[in-house]
Write a structure and sequence with these properties.
Length: 173
């Protein structure tokens, strides 16, 4: 009987000790979870740069915001230069040009483009191993806002070599 009483006492003390460790109420847990979700949402939301009051995205005027390469062969890179004119009253500085994927590579000068001057963004599309139609975007972020440029086209498979491939197991000298 003593062993039974002792065992029951130990079980009760263990349970009460476990219950005492969880001091947070359900309200506190819900509040903490809500705060975590709000913080995560704020971190995930993209923040667009705010242009100065005297500038807007229209100050960066592109001759063409889209380019169609048409049908191009597989292998060599397809290149195009997007040009823009600064129609504003302040210099434009390109901060970032982000392609929609790794097969498109934009490049630009970090130098300010003065009012009335022309700037350029070179875009290269890697065609090797990418047969078929494509439509890619490049998001340009500058001190006057954001612009989206697009390139499109159709990559035609490279012709097979006219020399037959040697698949024999014998070496030739």
């Amino acid at each position: 009987m003593r062993k039974l009483f002792l065992s029951a006492s130990i079980v009760l003390m263990s349970c009460s000790a476990l219950m005492a460790q969880d001091k947070k109420s359900k309200k506190d847990k819900k509040k903490e979870k809500a705060q975590t979700e709000v913080a995560a949402a704020q971190l995930a939301a993209p923040v667009a740069p705010t242009p100065p009051a005297n500038q807007n995205a229209d100050d960066m005027s592109f001759a063409n915001a889209a380019h169609d390469f048409g049908v191009i062969p597989e292998g060599p890179d397809a290149n195009f230069v997007f040009t823009f004119v600064n129609k504003g009253k302040e210099p434009i500085v390109i901060q970032k040009a982000q392609p929609s994927c790794g097969c498109t590579v934009p490049s630009y000068s970090g130098e300010p483009v003065k009012p009335g001057e022309t700037g350029k963004i070179d875009v290269s599309y890697h065609t090797k191993g990418r047969v078929g139609a494509f439509n890619k975007s490049i998001t340009v972020t500058s001190n006057v806002g954001m612009k989206v440029l697009t390139i499109s086209g159709n990559v035609e498979k490279a012709p097979a070599s006219s020399v037959p491939e040697n698949n024999s197991m014998m070496k030739t000298n």
